[in-house]
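User: Fold this; tokens only.

Assistant: Input:
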Amino acid sequence: MPASRKIEGAGLGLRREMLPELNDEILAQVDFWEVAPENWIPLGGKFARQLAELTHSHSFSTHGLSLSIGSSDPLDIDLLKRIKAFLKQHQISLYSEHLSFCSHQGHMYDLMPIPFTEEAVKHVSKRIRQAQDILEQPLVLENVSYYLAPFQQLSELDFICAVLEESGCKMLLDVNNVYVNSINHNYVPKPFIQALPSDAIVYGHIAGHYDEADDLKVDTHGADIIEPVWDLLKFAYDCHGVFPTLLERDFNIPPLTELVKDVERIRHIQQAVEKASAEFNCGRHLDTTVERA
């Protein structure tokens, strides 16, 4: 079997309705793709063949929807085994999910926030380690948007960092979720991003949201990305180095020719930050050489 392809650069979430628009020109403009495995595992026939053809020749990541890692329900072992088989079948090395829960005695079909408490840190970290043992690879968890913080004892930042440290999992940094939460919960987003552990961040997401009110933003993945969120992405690269980043668009989906313009903007920001970093490091090297001379 061929080795899994490493994800890098600028990516795009793949939905089945996009398949008729895919062509060589579009594929050449996207460095990697992301799928929700639950949406593809049950499929056979034409869709299964199309996905296999794509994963055979292009880099992919996965972003799950229903693991419910923070739930009090038993961990879904059968789902994890099916995910593991899916990753092996398509030679995908990365499986990400949400640091949240979506089930309690049955699925709720929404992502609910895990209480920011010490007890919850221990609970979810134990489940993450169990999941990682089954998958035989790190679980990558996304910081989620939330609208209530029940029983809060820790800040969102302290909770995320504690889970990362105790569980040994990795992080998917969604900069739009940071922006949305910063407005809804009245904190400054840049110090939040800066305080995250760089070595835990595997890749990132960027997306649009809905303005319900000046002080209420709703994470929808159904609108264009606003400039403050683009600025946060660049800031995240400045803080943590450039990491692979994916554009999410889940409804109100424009033609792929429009979406790849945002993919190209991600790539442009990445290249600009890398160039500035290289020039800075070169300047430091020259300064040191002059001083020694």
